[in-house]
């Protein structure tokens, strides 16, 4: 997976300046930045729905006998539960 990621990044470093240079000379100096903004926004629209949902835990934990506040539980007993 890391090799694939690095390969795509290397390809982007080769193709990106060629495409941006062509767009710069055909349209104008601001065009590569506008295109980059549009592509970044599209990536955000694709990635945002894939983000995991974070559930905030309550401030109390239930034990076998009663409810206690999280700060009353010794840190040693919570190791590995985070």
Would you give an account of this structure?
With about 80 residues, this protein is mostly helical. Helices cover about 50% and strands about 5% of the residues. The chain has one domain. The protein has a two-stranded antiparallel sheet with strand order 1-2. A hairpin with a 4-residue loop joins strand 1 and strand 2. The radius of gyration is 25 Å and the shape is elongated. The two termini are about 25 Å apart. The mean pLDDT is about 80.
Write a compact overview of the structure shown.
With 82 residues, this protein is mainly alpha-helical. It has helices at residues 2-26, 31-47, and strands spanning 60-62, 67-69. The protein is built from two helices and two strands, in the order ααββ.
Key features of this structure:
2 helices, 82 residues, mainly alpha, two-stranded antiparallel ribbon
Question: Helix and strand layout, with pairings?
Answer:
Elements: H1 2-26, H2 31-47, E1 60-62, E2 67-69
Antiparallel strand pairs: 1-2
